[in-house]
Amino acid sequence: MQALNIEETKFTMKIDFDPITGFCSMDGNSYPEDAISFFEPIVDWLKDYISQVKGPVKLRIRLNYLNSSSSKCFMDIFDTLEDYHVAGGDVFVEWVYNEDDDEIHDSGEELLEDMSFRYEFVVEND
Questions:
Q1: What confidence tens digit (pLDDT) does each residue in 77-114 have?
Q2: Distance CA 19, CA 74 (A)
Q3: What CATH number is associated with residue 106?
Q4: What is the rounded CA–CA span in Å between residue 70 and residue 76?
Q5: By three-state DSSP, how is residue 83 classified?
Q6: Domain containing residue 26
Q7: How many other C-beta atoms lie within 10 A of the C-beta of residue 115?
Q8: Taking the model in full, what pTM does it have?
Q9: CB 101 within 8 A of CB 63
Q10: Strands 14-17, 91-98: pairing kind
């Protein structure tokens, strides 16, 4: 299985998913013109990883900005991880936000509130 690497743009996050370690990183802005097309390879990669590798998933999300269509796509990611967790998979999500960014923190709380896998909010200072 190949790593998934997508370079950051003004509108999209940098994506680094490693199939060997299970460490996955999403970092930057998330307001792509077509969120479904941007997130589709990310969700597909996670589904392939879960079915083929069956290893632990540690997802680190650090966002500067998140639009509503991206939020829906994050729910798809979290639903996929929730299904994996319920089936016995090891899942941990780290939601990183700037201490002054209540909007990103609140978005994370809303997206993760119904999930039973382990997650943690991490505060960063400027």
A1: 999 999 999 999 999 999 999 999 999 999 999 999 99
A2: 20
A3: 3.30.750
A4: 10
A5: helix
A6: 4-124
A7: 16
A8: 0.94
A9: no
A10: unpaired
